Fold each of these.
Amino acid sequence: MAHRTPPPPRICPACDGFASVAVTLGGRDHRGHLRTITAHCPACQGTGTTTARRFPEGARA
């Protein structure tokens, strides 16, 4: 009997799976560290995946 495997996660179309990025603000702080902020994808809230959409039957004709 075949084993059921879960479907692969859907990659977010807005960020292509790269959900969080570090953006430099330019310059360095007094210790010499580069100042950065973390930005998350607004479409997937930083997860990199989306849920599968379920269309009612006959809606995609």
Amino acid sequence: MTPGTHLALTLTLSGGTAADARAVVHTLESAFGTAEDMPGNGGATVYTAAFDNDVPVGAGVTPPTAPPLSAPVTVTLQGSPEAVRLADKTLTSVFTVHEEGMVSGDQEQEWQLRLEP
């Protein structure tokens, strides 16, 4: 196994389609590995996804080119400060991101971002 860090991240996505939610999750897979939960198809208004993987050192350097979003997507990132920062860095390298808020705890952070098409 490649040395690295264990990172857990939970996402809540709203405001776009299931395809938009999956595009965001696939973008984060370059940094976090395969998602445990993937947004499904259907008429949901809120999608969730989770990552809980060992992440190799240097992951998240070159995220894939994501397909354009059909609408603005609000993403809430929840996890350790390191996981949330890595997710923010990865999403910012692919999408136009507006930070809308942050809540910090002792060992966990929650950031809300708006991704623009």
Amino acid sequence: MTTAYDGFDIESFEAGKGLWHARIRRADLSPLAIDGVLFPAMEMGFAWPDAQAAIADAKHHIDRFRRRITSDE
């Protein structure tokens, strides 16, 4: 299941029975830069009980990264 959010694609997937994770990619497929290191995607390392919880957590991280970038400028 893929969800679009604020310029990112969030893909939720079941990594094990009842263990949902999320993968974040930029919608334009350019790499993510984290502390100067480029990544094609970022996987959330938390296991959630359902896909919606994994997506909600990924959205929270995207919002947090946006606030961090804005406050650094």
